Amino acid sequence: MIIWVIILFFLSIVCIILWTPLRLFIDTKRDIYKIEWVYIGSASVISRNDDFSIQIQILFFTKIISFESLFKGKRPSSTAKRVTPANQRKVSKPTRLFSKLKKILFSFEIKTCKINWDTDDFLLNAYLYPITPFLFTPKKSFAINFEGKREVELIIENRLGRIIKSFF
Questions:
Q1: Segment 122-151, tens digit of pLDDT
Q2: 17: closest CA among 48, 51, 41, 50?
Q3: Residue 73 DSSP one-character state
Q4: Contact 51/66 with Cβ under 8 angstroms?
Q5: What phi and psi values does residue 32 have, to the nearest 5 degrees?
Q6: HSE-CB for 3 with a 13 A CA cutoff
Q7: From CA 114, how far away is CA 137, in angstroms rounded?
């Protein structure tokens, strides 16, 4: 009986991992750049006094890493490992790789896409302005302005289960 409870517990953990959404938030108006795996963890870009850092949160633990410390890492050693035929991976066909990449790309779902853009060219803005009402849907909108504003609000979502399903 205890074995079945343990198996059921692990199966429920696997189901939660497969079905919790992965989200990408980009909001230039409020300066939010974040990727999160709901209930599990997130990573966001934070700017403080002209210094950018990454805030990583996994469950209840939070860590802030500055970009400078990421790029100050060790230099590659001069004794690089040589690639022998035994260590080489088999190269797949580009068309097969492209089809897999296309399936993965189509597994993503755009939840919100709002773009308010100024091209800095009055003539181009005037040509694009009458087209924007035709690009409007409840989840997606595109607007042209003449005020110099460039704002993007984008929320993209996927699930690990859909990514794995796209391989088959």
A1: 999 999 999 888 888 888 889 998 998 899
A2: 41
A3: -
A4: yes
A5: -115, 120
A6: 0
A7: 10
Q: Which of 111, 103, 97 is nearest to 164 (CA)?
A: 103
Position 22, amino acid: L
CA distance 92 to 8: 38
Q: pTM score, two decimals?
A: 0.73
Element (H, E) at 26: strand 21-27
Tokens 């230039």 correspond to 28
pLDDT in tens, 5-58: 999 999 999 988 889 999 999 999 888 899 999 888 999 998 877 788 899 999
Burial class of residue 35, CB neighbours in 10 A (0-12, 13-18, 19+) = middle
